Each structure stands twice: as C-alpha cells, then as structure tokens.
Please model this.
Amino acid sequence: MLRPASYRGNALRFWLIAFLAAAPFCGGAAAQKLYGPGVSDTEILIGQTAPYSGPASAFSRIHKTEIAYFDYLNAKGGINGRKVRILSYDDGFSPPKAFEQVRRLIEQDEVAGIFSLLGTAINISVRQYLNARKVPQLFAAAQSSSLADPQRFPYTMGFLPTLRSEGRMYGEHIAATKPTGKIAVIYQNDDFGKDLLAGLKEGLGAQREGDIEAQPFEVTVPTIDGQIAVLAASKPAVLLVFAYPKHAAQAIRRVHELGLNVVKYVFSGNGSTSTVQPAGVDAYKGVLRAAFFKEPTDPRWKDDQEMKDWLEFAKKYMPDADPTDYLNSSALAFAKVLEQVLRQCGDNLTRENILKQAQSLRDFPLPLGLPGSLVNTSPANYEPIKYMELQRFDGMTWVPVEK
Model:
C-alpha cells in the first residue's frame, strides 16, 4: 500500500535517527579489541634475548624462570583468554649479537614488545632502535640509571633500583662504618661498572674520594688476578667488586686465598649460589650486598605464604632448577609485573597502550619483594622499585645488616 509522503519522510527520519544513535555502539563493539603487532585473539607474542652462552650465562636462569612462569600461566588460560608466548634468543652477552636478535624479533617475528633484556650494554645497544620504532622495552634486567630516562627514551623502562642508587648505599654505609682507610674497587670498564662507581663516590662524599683505589677490567678477560694483586698492594680496609658472577667469584676467592682482611661488598646480583659456590662459602662469609627480594634460604620467610607458593611452583614447573637460588626466585617478579601490565591492557593491546599501562602501576606489591616493597611507575618515574636492604652472608644465608 502506498504511504503518504509525510509518513515516508517521518519513517526515513526515524530510521536515520535510530542508525545514528546505534552507530557509536556498533563502532564501540568494533573498537573493543585494538591490536598491535604480535597480538591476536589467542596470543600475545613477547620477545627477549638472553645470555644463554657467554660470560654472563649464569644470569640466563632469570629468563628460564620467566618462560616457565608464562607456561604455567598459559596452562591456566593465559591473560584475558590469550596465551603469552616468549620468544627468547641467545645473545651471548654480546651487544652486536643482541642488536641483530632484537631486529629479528621486531622485523621478522613482529613481537608486541621486548622484555627483560639482561645487562646495561645490551639494553643500551638496542634502546635507540626500539624507541625510534616505538616498541616497548620493558623491565630491563639491568640497573643503569640511563635506563630510567623517560624524557629521552620513553619506550625504555628499567625495573630494579638503579646502579647509582646501589653504589650510593654502599658509599654511605662505608662512610658511617669505616671513616678512614683505603677503599679498593674493581669494576667492569663499561656503563655498568662506572655507574656503580659514580654512586659509591656520591655516597662517600668528596672528602673520601682520595681514598679510592680503582682498577677497571674488560668483561671479556678470562681472569682479574692482576687487578686484585694491584689492589691488594694498597692494603685497603674495604673492597668493592662491581662485576658479574664469573669475575665476582674469582675476585672473592682470590682475596680469600691472599688472606686479605677487608670488608667486602659485591654487586647485588652476586648473591646467588652461582657466585657463592664458585668463590667458596668460606670466602664469601661476611660479604655485603644490596637486596630487593626475599631470599629463599632466609629463615625469616620459612612460613611466608608467597615463598611457599614459589617453592611449590618451582618444584612443578622448574624441576631441574635450584629453588633456593636467588636468581631463580627473583625472576618471578619480572614475569608477574609484566603479567599485571598485560592484564591492565584488557583488549587494547597496541604497543602504545602496553607502554601506557607500564607507566600506570600503582602500589603493586613486588612479587617476592621485601616487606613494604611496592611497584610504582608514572610517565615521569621509570624506576619501578626503589627499596633496598643491606645484607651480609653469614655462611648459610643472607641476613639484614642492622643500621
């Protein structure tokens, strides 16, 4: 039946208004899922390189723990229905090799972001490339203050307290407990070692700078016995070893063999069995270091539920790993904080939003962190963890040093 023109006009206006009213909802439904590279309805692809070979291979257990955790998480359904797959390539602790592997991850594998690269030099070698491409470089397993520079490198974020902060803590403790005497320092001749040394000088104060006797070494050298001999000749009261596990173990063992009676400090990453055992337990007794996480061998955490959960997880998903090794347990924090970021992303998994959520962590309890440790970030704060505790090895475990 033919309708009057007025009716047809009114009907047309009705359906036009109805369409326009519905349009935002249709558009919203379509926009509910925003994906960038490496993301689909079923998967989030994350890339990393790790020192599975080379002078820092002891640290590769960090990445093995991270992968095991996401395998565990995927078995429970993943994050918001998506499995998280970690593509992890060997970089041999070589910056040029790491750069090529990261290029492969971005240009061939098309990962959503880069996660937990180990080492200052490794992270710096790829930082410019990743920022130019606006790829998140999250939670570096390195403590250089240069990795907490959101103004110049907004896509690169560290995780642990900076090396400079750690060095400053040692300097302040030495200034308070050893007001006189020579201070021997053996350090890697790179940004890692220099950052720790700079913090040490800040903590000691200008009046003690003349007491410092420093010996650099290249990370590629097989031994550092020569540097230790030079420092021993100065008869120091204090020795600080700013090195990765291989050389740190050499230094502590050699000092013990020489019978030097010095107060010894090591870089925080040298508290695990991978350093203590090669050096010798007797040689390591009395060594000081900064700590951020609960130590599995510390009797303080015997009845701690979080520690019990870690031991149960390790037994099931990492049967070949030592669950009491600090490097294994601390790695869980990196993985769980990345999990939190990806959960906060919801269905908006663009690289831009992954970065935004990494900048938006608020009082997130640090997994296996010391009591009171919280993870906080903002667009201006790229040092998620700041709390540190000075600890001493007593021959069995690490115990807090009373101030």
Remarks:
- The first strand starts at residue 34 and ends at 35.
- The chain is about 45% helix and 15% strand.
- The radius of gyration is 25 Å.
- Residues 1-30 have pLDDT under 50 and may be disordered.
